[in-house]
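Researcher: Next entry in the queue.
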Amino acid sequence: MRMLVIFISIFLSISGCDSNENSQQADRKELDLQLEEIKDFISRESCDEENRCDFIAAGSKACGGPKTYLLFSSSIDRQKLEELVENYNKAESDFNRKYGIVSDCMLVTPPEKIGCVNGKCETL
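Model: Structure for this entry, 124 residues:
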C-alpha cells in the first residue's frame, strides 16, 4: 500500500509539471498573439512627410524595463496603440512573475534616430 501511495505521489508531481509546462506554453502563445496584434495594428499606417515616426516601449523584461521599442507612424490611433501595448506589457510582466522567468537584465535603449523609409518607420 505504501508503494502505491509513493507511486501516485510521484505520478501526480510529474503530471503537475507537464500541466504547468503546457500552461506556460499556452500563456506564451497568448502573449505572442497579443504582440502580433500590435504589430499588425502598427503596420496598417504608413508614414510620409506629414506623418512622422515615433516609438513606444514594448514588452517587459523579468529584471524590469522594456524588451524592445516598436516604431510607428504618427497617423496611428495613438490612444488605442498605447492601450494595446499597456495591456501587453502588463500581461508579460504577470507571465514573468507567474513562471519565474529570468532575463539578461541588459538595458534596451530607445532608438536614437528614426525616419520614414518607403512608407515604413525604421531605425536609421
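Model: Strands lie at 53-58, 68-73, 114-117, 120-123.
Researcher: Noted, moving on.
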